[in-house]
TrEMBL record:
The keyword Transferase applies. This is Phosphatidylethanolamine N-methyltransferase. It catalyses: 1-hexadecanoyl-2-(4Z,7Z,10Z,13Z,16Z,19Z-docosahexaenoyl)-sn-glycero-3-phospho-N,N-dimethylethanolamine + S-adenosyl-L-methionine = 1-hexadecanoyl-2-(4Z,7Z,10Z,13Z,16Z,19Z-docosahexaenoyl)-sn-glycero-3-phosphocholine + S-adenosyl-L-homocysteine + H(+); 1-hexadecanoyl-2-(4Z,7Z,10Z,13Z,16Z,19Z-docosahexaenoyl)-sn-glycero-3-phosphoethanolamine + S-adenosyl-L-methionine = 1-hexadecanoyl-2-(4Z,7Z,10Z,13Z,16Z,19Z-docosahexaenoyl)-sn-glycero-3-phospho-N-methylethanolamine + S-adenosyl-L-homocysteine + H(+); 1,2-di-(9Z,12Z-octadecadienoyl)-sn-glycero-3-phospho-N-methylethanolamine + S-adenosyl-L-methionine = 1,2-di-(9Z,12Z-octadecadienoyl)-sn-glycero-3-phospho-N,N-dimethylethanolamine + S-adenosyl-L-homocysteine + H(+); 1,2-di-(9Z-octadecenoyl)-sn-glycero-3-phospho-N,N-dimethylethanolamine + S-adenosyl-L-methionine = 1,2-di-(9Z-octadecenoyl)-sn-glycero-3-phosphocholine + S-adenosyl-L-homocysteine + H(+). The keyword Metal-binding does not apply. GO terms for cellular component: endoplasmic reticulum membrane. It is found in: Endoplasmic reticulum membrane. The gene is Pemt. It is a multi-pass membrane protein. Its EC number is 2.1.1.17, 2.1.1.71. The chain crosses the membrane at residues 20-39, 51-75, 95-125. Its main location: endoplasmic reticulum. GO terms for molecular function: phosphatidyl-N-methylethanolamine N-methyltransferase activity; phosphatidylethanolamine N-methyltransferase activity.
Length: 162
C-alpha cells in the first residue's frame, strides 16, 4: 500500500481545480515546448530565416515572441499565486524577505547570463545558425551549468514565498 497522507496534505495547500492555477501550469509547460519546437523547425527548414530575410531578424522575432510569452506566463503565475491558499506559519516578514533574497539571486543569474550570452545566444541563435565564437565560461557559467534556468527557478520560488 501507498501512504498518500503527504500528498493529501499538499493538496490541502494547493487548489489544483482553480482556473488560474490550471492556466499558469499550462503556460509554464507551453513556453519551453513552443520555443523548442519552433527552434528545431527553423533548424531543419530555415523557413523563418527566409521569411524574415535573415537568420538574425528571425531570431530577434522569435526572441520577442518568447519575451511576450514569458510576460504572459509571469502574469498567469502571479494571478494563480494570489488565489492559492497560504501557509499561515509562513505568512511573515522573515518569509517575505527570504523570498526577496532568493528572487534577487535568481535575477542576478538571469541578467548576468543574458549579458554573457547576448540576445541571440540567449534566444536560440544557434538554431538559426548564429554561433558564438567560443563557449562562455565567465560568470555565472563558471558557477552553474544552467544559470538562466536555475535563476528563473529561483525567481519563481522567491516569488512564491513572497
Amino acid at each position: 500500500q501507498v501512504d498518500v497522507a503527504a500528498m493529501a496534505r499538499l493538496f490541502g495547500y494547493v487548489d489544483v481545480t482553480d482556473t488560474g492555477f490550471i492556466v499558469a501550469v499550462l503556460s509554464i509547460a507551453f513556453n519551453p515546448l513552443f520555443w523548442n519546437v519552433v527552434a528545431r523547425w527553423e533548424h531543419k527548414t530555415r523557413v523563418l530565416s527566409r521569411v524574415f530575410g535573415s537568420p538574425h531578424a528571425a531570431c530577434y522575432c522569435l526572441g520577442a515572441v518568447i519575451l511576450v510569452l514569458n510576460c504572459v506566463r509571469s502574469h498567469c503565475f502571479t494571478e494563480a499565486m494570489k488565489s492559492q491558499p497560504k501557509l499561515e506559519g509562513w505568512d511573515c516578514h522573515w518569509t517575505y524577505y527570504s523570498g526577496l533574497a532568493i528572487s534577487a539571486v535568481g535575477t542576478l543569474f538571469v541578467i548576468s547570463s543574458f549579458l554573457a550570452l547576448g540576445f541571440t545566444g540567449t534566444f536560440l541563435g544557434d538554431y538559426f545558425g548564429i554561433l558564438m565564437e567560443e563557449k562562455v565560461t565567465s560568470f555565472p557559467f563558471n558557477i552553474l551549468d544552467n544559470p538562466m534556468y536555475w535563476g528563473s527557478t529561483a525567481i519563481y520560488l522567491g516569488w512564491s514565498l513572497m
